[in-house]
Amino acid sequence: MTQDPQANRPTAHAEAQADAGHATPGGRRAFLGAAAASAMGGLLAFPGTASAQSLPGVTATEILIGNTTSLSGPVSALGTIARAQAAYFKMVNSQGGVGGKQIKFLFYDDGFNPAKTAEMARKLIEQDEVALLFGNLGTGPNSAIVRYVNQIGVPHLFLSVNGDKWTDYKTNPWSMPFAPSGRVECQVAIKHTLQTKPDAKFAILYQNDDFGRDYIAGAKDVLGAKYDSQVKAISYEVTDTTLDSTLVQLLSSPVDALISGVTGKFGAMSIRKASELNFKGNHYIATGVSSIQGVLIPAGVERATGVLSTVYAKDPSDPGTADDPGMKAYRAFMAKWYPEGNADDSFNSYGYMTGMVMHQVLIQCNGDFSRKNIMAQANNLKNLENPMLLPGIKINTSPTDHRPLEQMQLQRFDGKRWVRFGPIFEGSAV
Question: What domains does the chain contain, in order, with CATH numbers?
Answer without folding.
Answer: 5-180+322-399 (3.40.50.2300), 182-311+409-426 (3.40.50.2300)
